[in-house]
User: What shape does this take?
Amino acid sequence: MRVLGIESSCDETAAAIVTDRKELLSSVVFSQAEHELFGGVVPEIAARAHLQKVGSIVRTALNQAGVGFKDLDAVAASAGPGLIGGVIVGVMTAKAIAAVHNLPFIAVNHLEAHALTARLTQDVPFPYLLLLTSGGHCQILIAEGVGKFKRLGATVDDAAGEAFDKSAKMMGLGYPGGPKIEQYALSGDANRFDLPRPMVGKPGCDLSFSGLKTAVRHIIEGFSPDGTIENAVLSERNKADLCACFQRAVLDSLCSRLKNGIKIFRKEYPSGTHLVVAGGVAANTALRQSLENLAERYKLTFAVAPMKLCTDNGAMVAWAGMERFLAGMSDPLDFSPRPRWPLDPSAKR
Ligand code: KG4
Ligand code: ZN
Assistant: This one.
């Protein structure tokens, strides 16, 4: 069986085809460069760029897989959460293909797509403990099954990816900030600046990153002749040290909160075996290493998708579509995209 997946909820226009035997037949990702100028994604520009590209990206995905529309069994699209203009482009494209070729349409929750990707590339049984960390979301959950997630905690302010992006912007490193900070951190001294570890030591699994971001701002202001961030000048050494300290603080915070998550997971699912990290920030090598160590310490098996499947891509949508299709789920063609769409609807915040 083959499912086509379309992703367009942020600044990547992507399409991929996967099979029920976990073969990735093709995966095409186009990252919109237009946003670099603005230091963040501009929704209106993103929507137009998706519209311009989506047709050729889908065509390329089919060509690379060596299949036609007639060879597909279903078509899936990220139907939220995300920037609504882009989401509409992907959903309408998938619906049009479904209508013309008489295929089932599957509306995929973008967060669930991140959450299930590790199951495409590895054998990860439900239930598993999941750290979902992207540009817009940062949550600790138990993945109990397809469409079934229990949220243990979430950020009370910024997402970790957002903190990476905003801190990078303040340091003048460009967008997206995660990979830039990771690169600088490699040569930096992670002990040079004293940064806070928000929430560490408190019970529960909620997270917070805005205080850390403010602390980064104050350090940058200290390198300005008049104390304003606009006039701050950071040497390459200062940038590297600040990036290393920032990254270490984020990792400490995530690991500490996950320790609480592991205890809850253990209690609720004593036979649970896996710790999974997903979402764009999971492409960070230092984070992957820290979580692997953490899992080992608590005798859990660590799983994460290959880096290029952590940031937004079509394969994650196609795979989540496949999982839903195999579970007998599909959606009507009048399905409305959902800009907000929590994985665990019972979570209070
Ligand atoms: O999942 P994703 O591609 O898009 C959303 O659904 O938000 O995540 C993008 C986020 C951005 O904030 C980006 O800076 C971050 O993931 N990111 C990273 C790395 N690569 C991407 N953060 C830290 N280290 C990285 N290597
Ligand atoms: Zn994403």
